[in-house]
Design a protein that fits this description.
single chain, mainly alpha, 84% helix, globular
């Protein structure tokens, strides 16, 4: 009987692999579409708002958006923590567990929303925005406070529907949620055009631009709960303290990891300014912006795989996990090598066509960027794989190690070889603290939790075996 069950399980896993990959590719394609429209809308909105509001008030709007980005992780990372947990429960066929996770995540998120909304209103009314934004007109300072409050409140309103968005990512419905995000961006851009044409004011523009994504995510969540997610509707009875703590722990670890990444990225700019001056920062930043583009595409692809790994793990599809991880390492390494090689070869003409002669490319910076891009691509494959398995502590340890190696090495190299020293230091930190340890620990991690050795039999989860009734 055990042999029959094992055979049926393997057949089921093979049948599930194709829909899983279809979901991954659908998520990737719609992510590229959504990201492309977001970039285009951001670029097109610049002349529209500048022409309407003027340079100073446009700067006010952009500064307010920059301030509000700190609120984007103010839900404690609960939504991000939901993706892997929901995907594992989906792989195991445990819809009741998914409902518990959604209910618990929503309860925690709503508490954060009220706190953020209250804090935004207090801060907006108490801060001297004329001084904070270095504005010349006190009337602009009062408008700045209203703009900041509007953006922060709209950002907070995005959190509850984002719970359902991330849960749907775990259910391998990434293509659908990306289309709702695209709709939100389109509504926001159209609303911005209407608001500037009608002269509704900067506060209205900020509220429409920030509120449209929240509105469309809410509509998408309502459609989901009225359709295929009817059995997943949140209920106070389904809220569990243990599930809430698990979400906060995994989400909090993800937030800390993101902050460590931000520290590693921003410290390079600060150190270059300290040792070489702000002029060197301008040259470095433009070249860095160019070399960031392949990594954006890599991140889109890996983010689409995140819930797929977790779903396969919950289903016990260990063969697919092993095969796909190896393929990801090979394909993304090859893509990074090719794309960064081409950027390195054609960097000078690209920069000349883009910014003219406004910058000078520092010596050694281009080859350093090429090396850093390849190392980061390999590290990112492991990062998203470990995120999908919930191995947050290992990721935090790796990122802390990368910062501990990269920062002092930057201090040593920047005065000697220029801004390329910061890039090489970052590559060395990622390679030594993330890539090498993950490669060495992979075989020890996978046999015990995911991948059996060739001579071992496949473990059959009870939730999977229970789906088959053998007479």
């Amino acid at each position: 009987m055990q042999a029959i069950v094992a055979r049926l399980v393997l057949l089921k896993r093979s049948a599930c692999a194709s829909p899983r990959m279809a979901a991954v590719f659908g998520t990737m394609l719609t992510s590229v579409l959504t990201r492309g429209f977001s970039i285009a809308a951001s670029l097109l909105s610049v002349p529209v708002v500048i022409h309407y509001a003027g340079q100073e008030r446009y700067g006010l709007w952009m500064t307010a958006i920059a301030v509000s980005t700190f609120f984007s992780i103010a839900d404690g990372g609960v939504s991000n923590g939901l993706i892997a947990l929901a995907a594992k429960a989906h792989g195991a066929g445990d819809r009741a567990r998914i409902r518990t996770l959604i209910s618990s995540a929503l309860a925690v998120t709503i508490a954060f929303v009220f706190a953020i909304a209250a804090a935004s209103l207090v801060i907006a009314s108490r801060v001297d925005w004329t001084w904070a934004f270095n504005l010349r007109d006190p009337e602009l300072g009062r408008e700045a406070g209203a703009v900041v409050a509007a953006i922060c409140v709209c950002t907070a309103a995005t959190f509850p529907p984002t719970v359902f968005r991330e849960a749907r990512l775990g259910l391998l419905q990434g293509a659908r949620v990306n289309l709702w995000d695209l709709a939100g961006q389109m509504v926001g851009f159209a609303g911005l055009l209407v608001a500037t044409w009608a002269g509704l004011g900067l506060v209205a523009i900020a509220a429409i631009w920030s509120g449209a994504p929240a509105l469309m995510r809410t509509v998408g969540a309502a459609a989901f709960l009225a359709g295929s997610g009817r059995d997943l509707r949140p209920s106070p009875r389904c809220v569990e303290a243990a599930a809430s703590l698990s979400l906060l722990a995994s989400g909090g670890a993800f937030v800390l990891y993101s902050l460590m990444q931000l520290l590693a990225m921003q410290s390079a700019t600060v150190l270059i300014a300290r040792f070489l001056g702000t002029g060197a920062v301008a040259d470095f930043s433009v070249v860095q912006r160019l070399f960031q583009q392949p990594q954006t595409l890599i991140a889109i692809g890996l983010a689409a795989q995140w819930p797929a790994y977790a779903e396969a793990y919950g289903r016990g599809d260990v063969c697919w996990i092993e095969r796909h991880l190896r393929q990801s390492l090979a394909w993304y390494t090859a893509f990074a090598t090719l794309s960064y090689g081409l950027l390195g070869a054609f960097c000078t003409p690209i920069l000349r066509a883009w910014v003219g002669s406004a910058i000078t490319v520092p010596e050694f910076l281009v080859p350093a960027m090429m090396l850093y891009g390849i190392v980061t691509a390999v590290a990112s494959v492991f990062v998203f794989f470990y995120l999908s398995l919930g191995k947050h502590r290992a990721l935090l340890a790796g990122q802390l190690g990368a910062v501990a190696i990269g920062l002092p090495l930057s201090v040593l190299l920047i005065p000697r070889i220029g801004s390329a020293g910061a890039v090489l230091a970052g590559a060395a930190g990622s390679f030594a603290a993330i890539v090498v340890p993950r490669l060495l620990l992979l075989r020890r991690l996978l046999p015990s939790t995911v991948l059996p050795r060739p001579e071992q039999k496949f473990p059959i989860p009870a939730t999977v075996e229970a789906n088959y009734e053998i007479d």
